[in-house]
UniProtKB/TrEMBL annotation:
Belongs to the glycosyltransferase 47 family. Residues 108-414 form the Exostosin GT47 domain. The keyword Transmembrane applies. PANTHER family: EXOSTOSIN FAMILY PROTEIN (PTHR11062:SF184), EXOSTOSIN HEPARAN SULFATE GLYCOSYLTRANSFERASE -RELATED (PTHR11062). It comes from the Eukaryota. Its main location: Golgi. GO terms for cellular component: Golgi membrane. It is found in: Golgi apparatus membrane. It comes from Lupinus angustifolius. Keywords: Glycosyltransferase, Golgi apparatus, Membrane, Signal-anchor, Transferase, Transmembrane, Transmembrane helix. It is a single-pass type II membrane protein. This is Exostosin GT47 domain-containing protein. InterPro entries: Exostosin (IPR004263), Exostosin_GT47 (IPR040911).
């Protein structure tokens, strides 16, 4: 038995020596493998060498980072920026954005235009054209209905440009496609404002329901729930009876009206919808016109319009009471129409500043009349959202005052008289440059409002696709409600610089 154990121990020693020798051999082999040409190792070695600088371990990567990066030389003392630093940065960013705005756009948005039945498109345009000269057709406040439709005719200008022959189009920011699968966005060419004002009430509601069914039956609408569809509803009363069923679509609006008088909560918000300017009622006063009219601008502050309005527009009567009889101030009661147009144009071209208080809604066509007239807008509308504000800086062409400040005795006139002549001249020059962004035309022109619509839409595309794809994969019954709605308070402070 003892002899047998001795034999086993001898064999164990031999196996130990053999395994040690074998390990030493492989260690030697791998240590000098770079000098060997063994085919079976060639790929693994080259692969290892190729990834030698890639670290997948946090600790290893951190050690390498700290060994190759030096800490900042300055100390840790916090230095607060001054107001001048903020202003200089703001100016530099503004100049950069302007340069980018005027650069060529090489990536147009692709839009599919629905070929809707004529009763939603051409028939309504003919209805407007055939009744345009009926001057007796007035709204409840005395404004000509057709002029009101014209102010909100953004649906016509966009559609007319999209369907024009490519040989006649000028814009490079958008191209019409003829297959749904090629489209980024889908345009709904329904003239909601014309139908609202020129059709009998029940007939109009019936047409709205037909339009709703026609659009929502389309495969593109069913695919996205309407998130990539553009719906022009520029007059706040238009399409009101059915628009809750199309609240996912991108609405083209005159403002947001966060008071809830015209749009229900959750229907409109900046991240989804787009604000478009009214069509100006007055003729453009270009740079040459400005140089000719500037010596005649003797009126400090001008306003012409309805003095009594509803909802947020009640501030008008309070401002009238505060400003009436003040030196350099001209306030007139007036409505639209040829006589009103001439009076408004004359008053604006003879004034330095034009008062723009809220109307029934936070916005008013008067703002854009002032811009094209070279009259610096003084905006007193706390809930106002402005067209293309992601592109245009309105501080360059307008002054803003909160309702609270504007109603303080003497505050507004003191504020305006404190604006230096150099600042007034600079803003007038900016008005001459900015006015092109508010002039609708056929064919649509680069940097006109139609062009800026598509430049703004380009910024919405990624978010539209995100919510479209998200809606396609959420599980039924899950907490799938997701909204981009962002409604911070829109407080306004005076701007001088």
């Amino acid at each position: 038995m003892a002899g047998r154990n001795n034999i086993l121990r001898s064999k164990s020693r031999i196996l130990f020596y053999l395994s040690s020798l074998l390990c030493f051999f492989f260690f030697f082999l791998f240590s000098y493998s770079s000098h060997l040409t063994i085919p079976s190792f060639s790929f693994s070695l080259s692969h290892s060498q190729f990834n030698s600088n890639i670290h997948t371990s946090f600790v290893t990567s951190l050690e390498h980072f700290l060994s190759t990066h030096k800490s900042n030389a300055h100390d840790d003392t916090f230095i607060a920026s001054s107001d001048a630093d903020v202003t200089n940065l703001d100016i530099a960013l503004y100049n950069s954005e302007i340069n980018r705005l005027y650069a060529e756009d090489n990536y147009p948005i692709r839009v599919y235009v629905y070929n809707m039945p004529n009763k939603f498109t051409y028939d309504l345009l003919w209805l407007f054209s055939n009744t345009y000269k009926e001057t007796s057709n007035l709204t409840s406040n005395g404004s000509p209905v057709h002029r009101l439709i014209e102010q909100h005719s953004i649906d016509y200008w966009l559609w007319a440009d999209l369907i024009a022959p490519e040989s006649e189009r000028v814009l490079k920011s958008v191209v019409r496609v003829h297959r749904m699968e090629d489209a980024d966005l889908f345009y709904i060419p329904f003239f909601t404002t014309i139908s609202f004002f020129l059709m009998e009430k029940q007939q109009c509601k019936a047409l709205y329901r037909e339009a709703l069914k026609w659009v929502t039956d389309q495969p593109a609408w069913k695919r996205s729930g309407g998130r990539d569809h553009i719906l022009p509803v520029h007059h706040p009363w238009s399409f009101k009876s059915v628009r809750r069923y199309m609240k996912n679509a991108i609405w083209l609006l005159p403002d947001m009206d966060s008071t809830g008088n015209w749009y229900k909560p959750g229907q409109v918000f900046l991240e989804k919808d787009l604000i478009l300017p009214y069509v100006a009622n007055l003729d453009l006063c270009d740079a040459r016109c400005l140089s000719e009219t500037n010596p005649k601008r003797k009126t400090l502050l001008f306003f012409r319009g309805r003095l009594k309005r509803n909802a947020g527009g009640k501030i008008r009567s309070k401002l009238v009471a505060e400003l009436s009889g003040a030196d350099g101030v001209m306030i007139e009661e007036g409505t639209a129409g040829e006589g009103g147009k001439a009076a408004a144009q004359s008053g604006m071209r003879n004034s330095l500043f034009c008062l723009n208080p809220a109307g029934d809604t936070p916005s008013s066509a008067r703002l854009f009349d002032a811009i094209v007239s070279g009259c610096i807008p003084v905006i007193v509308s706390d809930e106002l959202e402005l067209p293309f504000e992601g592109i245009l800086d309105y501080r360059k062409i307008a002054l803003f005052a909160s309702s609270t400040d504007a109603l303080k005795p003497g505050w507004l006139l003191k504020f305006l008289k404190g604006i230096s002549p150099a600042r007034v001249h600079e803003m007038q020059q900016n008005l001459a440059k900015y006015s092109r962004h508010f002039i609708y035309s056929s064919p649509a022109q680069p940097l006109g409002p139609e062009d800026l619509v598509w430049k703004m839409m380009a910024g919405k595309l990624v978010n539209i696709k995100l919510h479209t794809r998200r809606s396609q994969r959420v599980v039924e019954g899950s907490r799938n409600r997701c909204t981009c709605e962002c409604r911070p308070s829109n407080s306004t402070s005076p701007t001088i610089s």
